[in-house]
């Protein structure tokens, strides 16, 4: 599937789910279609969804405490629908390809590059974090509730921040030297298939047929 059209579809789907006053069966059509297309991604998406549900439950808890059980249930269902749909579409995709797809939508070049460089620094920080973990493991560091352990944790966090600042400065100098002008160049032509058309058609059908939800 074309990632740019997937981003557009995910945005429309999320907005519609979030702003609807109640949930309708028509919302399941795009989700079922994506489930059939992304069968290989279902397990990975579900694993990520389980972790994210910890935060969703905290959000729903405030409504539950105020005895607004309907709202609590609506928050859980809405959030899970949006997240599961998005995870199915993008959980196995490269972050840089997603940034390129966002740029191809021609919405905002600045936002596209914020996304692109955020992806780069997230990846760099993950690699740096894994390197620090391996270093601690080779030095036989053990996780304990002690002042020494907390100092080690603080030093690791500080090193991550220093590494991020240093790499951002190097990247800034490199972009200045190369006369960077907020453009991404792609080597593949923008194309879409019949599946992309069906996907967008289902999203638009869901949006049109459920418009009455707002006025009930």
Describe the structure using short key phrases:
2 domains; 216 residues; globular; mainly alpha; 8 helices
Structural features, described:
Helices cover 74% and strands 0% of the residues. It is mainly alpha-helical. The longest helix is centred in the C-terminal third of the chain and has 31 residues. It starts with a helix and ends in a 7-residue tail after the last helix.
Quick description:
The protein has helices spanning 3-19, 28-37, 42-65, 69-90, 95-104, 109-138, 147-177, 194-209. It has 216 residues and is mainly α.
**Beta-strand content estimate:** under 5%
Largest β-sheet summary: none
Shape: globular
Give the SSE string.
HHHHHHHH
Helix content: over 70%
The end-to-end span amounts to: 35 Å
Mean pLDDT: 82
Q: Which value, in Å, is the CA radius of gyration?
A: 22 Å
- This entry's quaternary arrangement is single chain
- Overall structural class, as computed from helix and strand content, comes to mainly alpha
How many domains? 2
- How many strands in all? 0
Number of helices: 8
What ranges have pLDDT less than 50 throughout 5 or more consecutive residues? none
């Amino acid at each position: 599937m074309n990632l740019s059209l997937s981003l557009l579809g995910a945005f429309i789907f999320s907005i519609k789910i979030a702003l609807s006053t109640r949930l309708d069966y028509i919302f399941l059509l795009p989700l079922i279609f994506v489930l059939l297309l992304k069968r290989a991604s279902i397990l990975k998406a579900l694993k990520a969804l389980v972790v994210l549900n910890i935060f969703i439950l905290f959000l729903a808890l405030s409504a539950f405490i105020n005895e607004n059980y309907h709202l609590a249930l609506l928050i859980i269902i809405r959030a899970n629908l949006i997240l599961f749909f998005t995870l199915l579409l993008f959980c196995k995709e490269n972050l840089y390809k997603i940034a390129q797809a966002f740029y191809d939508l021609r919405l905002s070049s600045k936002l596209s590059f914020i996304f692109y460089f955020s992806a780069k620094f997230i990846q760099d920080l993950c690699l740096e974090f894994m390197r620090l973990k391996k270093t601690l493991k080779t030095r036989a560091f053990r996780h304990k509730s002690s002042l020494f352990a907390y100092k080690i944790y603080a030093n690791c966090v500080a090193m991550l921040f220093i590494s991020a600042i240093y790499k951002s400065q190097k990247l800034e100098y490199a972009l200045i030297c190369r006369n960077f002008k907020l453009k991404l160049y792609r080597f593949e032509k923008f194309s879409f298939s019949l599946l992309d058309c069906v996907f967008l058609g289902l999203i638009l059908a869901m949006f049109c047929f459920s418009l009455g939800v707002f006025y009930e």
